[in-house]
What does this fold into?
Amino acid sequence: MRKTLPALLLLCALLLCACGTQSEEPYSLTLWYVEDDPLAPVFLRLAEDYNRERERDSLAVTTRAWTNEELLLRALESGASPGLVLCSHELAFHLYEQERLYDPKLAVIDCPAWLRERSDCVGHGFFPIGSELPLLCVRNGFPTTLGALLAEGSGEWESAQPLLAVERFAPLFYQVLLDAGTEFTATARRDELSLDYVNFYNALAGLAFEHVLSAAPEAAAPCRIASSPTLRDRELNGCGVYPLSDGPLLATCRGLALTARDTRMQRALPDFLRWLAGSARLGQAALEAGLIPAGEESLRADSPLEATLLSLRERSQHLPDAGCSYYVNQSFFEEEFRAALELLH
It folds into this structure.
């Protein structure tokens, strides 16, 4: 009893950290998600729609929100087993390596060959919905490529407002070094050995010193680099949206990891997955969340952002592993780099 008590206390503490929870029925198909997942609002609505339309003898879908992915993972590792988890590819691949995914052996979602080849769990225990990525949003009349924009900023920028605002620098570094054929580890002592890293670091620092570059995401600037879900919530009239590279694009794929252990949940999964895959629901959900749809269904673009996202469906995406140095260290790098920029003012 002494050995099991700490584990039980940990699980109780983790469950207390969960919030935004709908009451879970004694038998239901449970869906877990992280609060800030761009797909979360869409899936809450889809769960409600499914529950209205489902057959009477099928399980209802209930949801539970977690404040962050780390707490959600700790709950899973403590023995909890929801039916599905709405999550990033990094978490899904990690769960696959731990043999925590359930394969219903059901082909309901089509996705590009490069994505199926990325991991054996794709289409089996993990069903991709869409990918978020950093994009360049520029006011009409400004350069539409990252290189040209940075070159213009290094010239004579005479406006009182910055030319470029950046939401997050770590993905920007990763994309630029990926194009140069260099791994970005988000660890200064390792990255500083790369001339590509040093040159780009110094270029951004110089632009910040000249007040051409702003580290404030909401700064008034005619150009900005932001994640595609963030741009979904912005007014884009008079703006164009472009990828940061002509090569493979750094992205985070989001989808459903199937973690059901309970046999009733496992039997209920096919009905829910087939329903999701019908009527282009998943493709529309991806666009609504600001993601590149993973499926191949026919979709219509209703905004410049959606047009860009649909145009990138055939492009190869670079999906970092959960255990890579970048994934582990990116938050620390972000803090350190922003602190360094602050010293330039």
Summary: Residues 93 and 322 are 7 Å apart (CA to CA). The chain is about 40% helix and 15% strand. The radius of gyration is 22 Å.
